[in-house]
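Progress narrative, work stream C.
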Amino acid sequence: MISLLLTLSKTIEHVALTRMTVFTPKCLSLLQFACRKGYSPLYTIHLILEIVYKASNDKRHMSALFLYVQGAFDKVLHQRLAEIMTNNNFPPYLVDWVQSYLSDRSVRITNGTASEPSFTPIQVGILQGSPLSPFLFNSHSLPLCHNHQRLGVDLMVSYVDDYCLLAISVSWQRNASTLTAAGNQLQLEANQGGMNFELSTTQLFHFPYGKIIPTADLPRIQFGEHHTPNNLEQR
């Protein structure tokens, strides 16, 4: 759902975003590629491919797990966002401004022909149509992106609400075991922050090993009751 915002409001938000991105290099994880000046999704892809090519030359097996945060902007907890920004060295005046910006807001839903009779206060979440929202979600999800070694994977990168975990080892079976443990741990940490990964959109890719092409019967990733098989459609 897209929020319709005043032009003046968006202008102020762009000014605030410019101030906040000054602190991006020292406040956000280096593996969060969104909201960084001069970066794009292509940088994320290039980094992943560079590691994949190197592992292939080293005769290693590679597997990647792609995750998507469900309803990302709707899940941002305002107080938690303030605590994370404070703990990661954002200036106090910016933390206070963000809290003021998010507080005392309300919403009324319309489909073009009919509207709700009254406005509903917004207690959780950030605005879908705001230029600030990707940056604020990046800040809110920062704890998920620190120290990917804790998950036992070789790489973890994110672009706003999209995540990639990369495992490299002597076999696809070991990669699947690593990614299962890492994915479940990341899901647990996301749940503790009020977020949730959309399991139906989760994708697993076992990369080819030399001339050996991965097949559908390779080990799957398991999230509780949900199983994610090896994706063959993009080969």
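Work stream C, second folded protein:
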Amino acid sequence: MTLTPTLTPTTTTTTTTTTTTTPVVECTECKFPFQYKSESYGKCTTKDFGRPWCELKKGGWGWCKSGCDAKKGENSTETAPAPARPLPTEPPKYCAHRCSAKRERKNWNFLTAHERSLYIEAVQELYNAGVYIKFVKMHQDAVNDPYAHGTSGFLPWHRKFLLEYENALRCLAPKFECVTIPYWNWGEWQFYCDEQAKVDGIGCRSYQHIPANMRKDIPNAQSILEAFGGEGCKDKPNPGLWGMSCSQLAGYCSHSKHGALVTAACRVTCKACKPSQTPIYSADPRRPDPNNACVTTGPFVGWKDWEGKCLSRKVDWNLGLPHNRPLPSKASLLKLITDHDKYGRDRGFRFSLMSGPHGLPHNAVGGHMTAMRSPMDPIFFSHHAYVDKNWATWQDCKDHEDLIASKLNRVHYEGMGLKTHQGSLLEDDGIDAPMPFKLMDKPFVPGNGCSEKAPGGRWNPCRQCLGKLFGRSGLCSWHWNSGCVMQCAAQQCMSKCGSGGTSKDLVPSSFARSDGEKFEYVFNHDKFGETPRQWALAPGRLEQSAYSYQLEALDKDLTKKSCKMMHGGSEEAELSAADLLELEAQNSKSSLYSTDLQVQSSSSSIVKKNGWFDFRAKADQVKKANPAYSSKQVCKKVEQDWVNELCQARDASKMCQRSGVKENCEFSCSGPVNKQPEICGFIATFNYLRRDAAVTVSDDCVA
């Protein structure tokens, strides 16, 4: 019997190979001494394979039974004869695990020029191979979508989704084997904008503007939005400059006889671009959003979804416009992380992170990012990597990062427990229920009823069905919002609101390249687990695919102090002595705060250097003024004061002095739905399964 050199204990079938079962043998069946990797062994060894094995007298290799005195790395001093056949080698690693470096996701601002270009090249290759679009279809699938966006499964589902996407990038070619998803740190960016507003009253002019203070502190800073192609390009009239269109002004400015001043003014106003003739994507195909247009610059020009619609974004990210709002700052995220001690079902950490902080950047970018096919925009993955990082930071802050799967409880993850909604079955989001990962078969096509102008208005069967989804709020029945189109594909309303939307199970060929080239990537290759129990573990506990996030100074210097004041380490008290020993051994691998990674220069160190914010000094002041305060109360007071300070600077700046809008940047999603800001409807479409419809979502600047 000829054995494979992988010494696998069971028969395993994959898409490319079949491995034979390796026998378990008595020690007398072993050939001693035997040679392996230039070393000679007089006993069974565990080297490289984790359990005792040896060369057999009859040829081949086998697992040794107990009692053969195997010792790890033990070898004999005897010299073995040269083998008559090739020696066994280590099994080839899966394509996503071949990188010798630790898997670490970094802030886009701290990537080198080579790392940036390599990541973009990998994304382009995945798109050209026809594989990228499969991930988009998986995200929009009518079974996956309600689970991944309306339930407690939101965070673990996306954690697995991002890791599978990252694995696919790594499997494209050897040069991509160490690629990781760079995260878009919009919290850090908004923090710098707010601080800059204290100085110049402006802050940031647009979502892709890098303020002066950030450029000074982080010379390598680059807007990931600009690097990925920037805004959508649309020719539009500009009454402020003689009523000419941008294309007319571009021609006039380039030949202006009035000097550089006029030319510069024209360029700033128009940001001259050549609009694409490709149809743009619109959630409601009957009412294309005039604020969206094709991306015509950057590395993803020419990208189209399966309907032939161009990669689309908002045409103007100017923060002075009514539909653009600032994003949550790092101060707000720190407050969110420390405020919530439980994952939560209807409230808690998950709901708070998913609503505003997750939803606002989606809405800010616009276009594809405002729909369930949002992964069509590569910005999606960098945005969600930052969302995932904030979850990882929360896990670390609450001392959950060391927990093993069997120790997770409702503090760490809690399903909503809904079995049905409006008579339709729902995917179980319990901690031990499998998470759905299907692939959209036939895309959903919205019908006439899925529109603000639906025949019969609010009495249209589709509008009536959508109204039931949102209950007494009246959203999508009495009051239409652009986000309502996403829910037309909900299983409860799909048949009344359009056609298509069918799903199919994933099979090995689901991610085959369209050009027929070999592609090693296999979805769920590691068989790590299918439920939130596995994927609610900290990133450092995901076995072969364990990863970490770049340790920025703000995480280390500020978050650590705050977390220590807010949390006393009660999780460890629930564990046995044996568990504690195991967790201690794992801590250096999974904690953001005990890692030996080099800390990158980031906002916290700059804050301390420039005197912008000193957490410890503020805490001492609060404690002196309020001696009876507990450390938790002190921390909450310091964080809220910091948020308020940044909010005041933000609201007084041009970022919030928006033309045609009486309200400032603050918003609150409470009261009658028709009186709420437009952003509230977009956020609500992600939360229609909430038990308590009275929960208020608001900007952190609203007390």
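The two ends are 75 Å apart (CA to CA). No further action is required on this item.
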